[in-house]
């Protein structure tokens, strides 16, 4: 068969919706900027506990296991809320969903400001996790409503780049607040910032022309040739709704979940334990640890902004999604897993930090790409729900990795031995996840099997 192309098929006689060169295009990039800010705040809220780990553990006299439990509690409702909100997204606008989420982020920071204790830390982290569970998938869903399928790689990279940018900015700023004004001040500032973003979004955030609901409205008003054409413009795969079980059991969705799973294991470990590891095992100051984390995040952001346009360019040249976006995420997780397995045994500090950067920064590539590949085998009207499911399953490691690490550290002969065991466990998970992603992600094949309107290529690609 012919190589994959993003151009319309010969039977596609209607252009479908497109961004006008004026106000709608400007609005698309305004929404993109707001969503990047949304992700910056999201990761600042998420990382504050890890950045304040040492003073919190000292003040409240917490063991590593107890701190690990508090870190993992963030994910108690994280995946479940991602699933539920994913299905709600078929009925509620992205404007409403993101507004409510960020208001809850603000509320979640308050309990520990009233009484600093293990119960209030747990309550705040559980509520924050429930409110942030759908954040990445629903903000990506909102973003996709403003861009056609063959122009999503850069906006997707910017959205996920907001996560890296969040750590890049948050690590030094939150650390400065913690060191100069106490760790409670960081919680208070983040509550205010979250509430402020919600108010701006309520005024400026709207659903775009590639929303399946708006596509349906165009059909009924006669501005599209037929319903299929309206849906086709909204996503890579148009066609009848499919049973969710069938969608979720495609190799592409399973492989996408696998790559996200491996990446999430590393990222949850990073948020919970990397600042403490730098300070207690590598003898860094709080400022040096924050700077190192910022450099790792900067590397991840640079990688995102480099790889994502390359994916678009490869697709424009006819390279299939299996090799352009599918292989890229599998390889990224494999490379990071190899670095994770190696750095605990490297003696030189500089060499160890380089490998740590590769281990925790390279996985950033997998996050936007796993959404892109999953979207190619899902009808647009079901994309939000599937994104919620994919995100929920892919982030399950957060429920295990921080708590397991705390137990490994407490059970080991020394903290260094416990950290090594945790990093090797993480490496094993990542290597397995990367292999599964490489083998299973085949969007063109799966789109054909589901009967979706996708310019498919044969499996030889």
Describe the structure.
With 461 residues, the protein is mainly α. The protein has a single domain, classed as Growth Hormone, Chain: A (Up-down Bundle). The protein contains 22 helices and no strands. The longest helix has 31 residues. The chain is globular, with a radius of gyration of 22 Å.
Architecture blueprint of SSEs:
Layout: H1 23-51, H2 53-60, H3 64-73, H4 78-88, H5 94-108, H6 111-114, H7 118-132, H8 135-144, H9 153-181, H10 183-204, H11 212-220, H12 227-234, H13 244-248, H14 251-280, H15 286-316, H16 321-342, H17 349-361, H18 366-375, H19 383-394, H20 397-411, H21 415-440, H22 443-450
Helix pairs in contact: 1-8, 1-9, 1-10, 1-14, 3-7, 3-20, 4-7, 4-19, 5-7, 5-8, 5-10, 8-9, 8-19, 9-10, 9-15, 9-18, 11-12, 14-15, 14-16, 14-18, 14-19, 14-20, 14-21, 15-16, 15-17, 16-17, 16-18, 16-21, 20-21
Which percent range fits the helix content?
A: over 70%
Which runs of at least 5 residues are low in confidence (pLDDT < 50)? 1-19, 213-238, 455-461
CATH class: Mainly Alpha
Measured between the Cα atoms of the first and last residue, the distance is 10 Å
Provide tags for this entry.
461 residues, disordered N terminus, disordered C terminus
Question: Concise description?
Answer:
The protein has 461 residues and is mainly alpha-helical. Helices cover 74% and strands 0% of the residues.
């Amino acid at each position: 068969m012919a190589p994959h192309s993003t151009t319309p098929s010969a039977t596609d006689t209607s252009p479908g919706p497109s961004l006008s060169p004026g106000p709608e295009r400007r609005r698309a990039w305004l929404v993109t900027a707001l969503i990047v800010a949304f992700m910056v705040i999201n990761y600042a809220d998420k990382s504050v506990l890890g950045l304040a780990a040492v003073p919190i553990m000292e003040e409240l006299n917490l063991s590593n296991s107890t701190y690990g439990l508090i870190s993992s509690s963030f994910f108690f409702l994280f995946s479940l809320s991602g699933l539920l909100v994913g299905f709600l997204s078929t009925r509620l606008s992205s404007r409403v969903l993101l507004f409510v989420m960020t208001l809850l982020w603000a509320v979640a920071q308050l309990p520990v400001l009233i009484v600093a204790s293990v119960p209030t830390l747990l309550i705040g982290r559980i509520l924050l996790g429930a409110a942030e569970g759908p954040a990445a998938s629903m903000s990506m869903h909102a973003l996709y409503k403003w861009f056609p399928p063959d122009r999503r790689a850069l906006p997707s990279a910017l959205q996920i780049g907001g996560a890296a940018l969040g750590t890049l900015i948050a690590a030094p700023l939150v650390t400065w607040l913690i060191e100069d004004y106490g760790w409670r001040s960081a919680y208070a500032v983040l509550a205010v910032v979250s509430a402020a973003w919600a108010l701006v979004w309520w005024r400026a955030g709207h659903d775009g022309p590639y929303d399946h609901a708006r596509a349906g409205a165009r059909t009924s008003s006669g501005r599209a040739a037929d319903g299929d054409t309206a849906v086709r413009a909204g996503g890579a795969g148009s066609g009848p709704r499919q049973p969710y079980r069938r969608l979720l059991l495609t190799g592409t969705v399973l492989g996408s979940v696998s790559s996200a799973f491996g990446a999430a294991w590393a990222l949850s470990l990073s948020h919970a334990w990397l600042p403490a590891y730098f300070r207690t095992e590598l003898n860094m100051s709080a400022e040096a640890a924050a700077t190192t984390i910022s450099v790792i995040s900067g590397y991840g952001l640079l990688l995102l902004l480099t790889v994502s346009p390359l994916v678009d360019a490869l697709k424009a040249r006819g390279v299939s999604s299996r090799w352009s976006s599918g292989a890229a995420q599998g390889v990224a997780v494999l490379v990071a897993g190899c670095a994770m397995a190696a750095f605990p045994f490297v003696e030189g500090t500089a060499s160890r930090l380089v490998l740590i950067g590769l281990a925790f920064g390279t996985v950033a590539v997998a996050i936007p790409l796993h959404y892109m590949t999953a979207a190619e085998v899902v009808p647009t009207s079901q994309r939000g729900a599937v994104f919620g499911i994919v995100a929920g399953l892919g982030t399950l490691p957060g429920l295990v990795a921080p708590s397991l690490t705390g137990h490994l550290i407490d059970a080991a002969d020394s903290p260094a031995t416990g950290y090594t065991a945790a990093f090797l466990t993480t490496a094993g998970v990542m290597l397995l996840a990367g292999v599964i992603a490489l083998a299973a992600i085949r969007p063109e094949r799966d789109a054909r099997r589901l009967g979706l309107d996708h310019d498919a290529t044969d499996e030889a690609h």
